[in-house]
Amino acid sequence: MPSAETTRVNPQQPDPVRPTREDEVAAAGSEFIGGPVGRRALLGGSWWTPVRVIVLVMLGMFALGMVQKFPCYDGAWFYGASSQYTHACYSDIPHLYQGRGFADGLVPYFDKLSGDMDYLEYPVLTGVFMEVASWLTPGSGTIQHQEQVYWMVNAGMLMICAAVIAVCVARTHRRRPWDGLLVALAPAFALTATINWDLFAVALTAAAMLMWSRGRALAFGVLLGLATAAKLYPFLLLGPLLVLCWRAGKWREFGVATLGAVVSWLVVNLPVMILAPEGWSKFYTFSQERGVDFGSFWLILSQHMDTPLDTDVVNTLATALMVLSCLGVAVLTLTAPRRPRFAQLAFLVVAAFILTNKVYSPQYVLWLIPLAALARPKWRDFLIWQACEVAYFLGIWLYLAYTTSGDKHQGLPTEGYQLAIAVHLVGTLYLCAVIVRDIWLPERDVVRRSGDDDPSGGVLDGSEDVFVLGYAAHPPRHAAHDWEQPPASVDWGKSPDGSH
């Protein structure tokens, strides 16, 4: 993001976009903090730059999310299975401190665990994150005290990841730093940030997106490979990038990015793969063998079937649906009247993976939140989707409370939980539909209406097309400098006298 000083000395550079000028929800919400930011305040060189404000808001929301977990911190994680669900404060982190051998000093992937799980079932870089947190956790005191400290240490490390995400999202679209507030203020982000370790991979993915937006293909690839070494989903971003580079003829950049991703992934994984092959493969075999689980439409189907589908059948069907979804995104990319933005396709592909997967843990929403802020920075649509995700967050814990409360049946019965799953699915599909509409009708795209082409696209931004299909194959081909600007949007933040 350009500094205030750069903006003042370079009058040819367009002003940053103010959401309160183009978004009625943002304009209305700004009244709670004194009204929309004016041009003079935006460019005036104050310490309160958009990125710093967004980071502080992110840290504040993250802290509120930690407070929301305090009923469990004070004992619900240890003294009652049901109470951690009724308070909606469950977290995997304290339970796995002892359950995965960190309390006993076992080395992930190399030392076997006791019980049903023989090795740690997480990718290597996430295992490293968990191990580092265990090193920072004192081994004295009761096991309950150690688990509390382990959660607090992880929360501190994950808070750093949250700050990184805020900075990266705010800087990815140079002229739209305030879109980072969508991430910082996302209620589902605060509620799910400390359930598991997903924020580590999300931070690496956000940093990779920032590097690509700056035209640094190798750095993008390296960071994306590291993100994939922490969680599987980031590698999906190479799919839409392939089709976009195909349409724009940017094969060299795609090759560099792919090479960087493969090499960095191998650097992390090869040592463990060679020295502890059984432990290394546990994540992949566990993912394959895991049955239908919480949050997926497969669970709704299985609960309505006399004979639920076999796990292998579900794996095959889920893979087929994902492949079809990716093919659909590819066709959309090559036939759209204007080349889609990278963030739009990244959201669609990751959302397709979430929707077709056989499990949806509540923290998986973290994968989508930064991508949603870049793909569709419109407060109304974002908040509709977030409301659906918060409903699911509450639904899964109330359902688990119902299943663990014995004869009391406190919580949400099966039918209610199925409704919560449906709400999550519909909310995600709604945001996907709006993004597809933006791709097919570029004049509806909020980012492009403000004068940009593809600010997260790096070398793709403003590039000519070299390969298109269908409607897009007919002239004129739409590149950034050929695009006719639509009329300026309504200035929702302007007062009657014309000031802001």
TrEMBL record:
TM annotation in the entry: 47-67, 149-170, 182-212, 218-244, 256-277, 313-336, 382-400, 420-440
GO terms for MF: hexosyltransferase activity
Compartments where located: Cell membrane
Source superkingdom: Bacteria
Residue ranges, annotated region (Disordered): 1-21, 478-500
One family name in Pfam for this protein: GT87
Main location: membrane
Bias (Polar residues): 1-12
Family: Belongs to the glycosyltransferase 87 family.
Protein name from the UniProt record: Glycosyltransferase 87 family protein
Species: Streptomyces tabacisoli
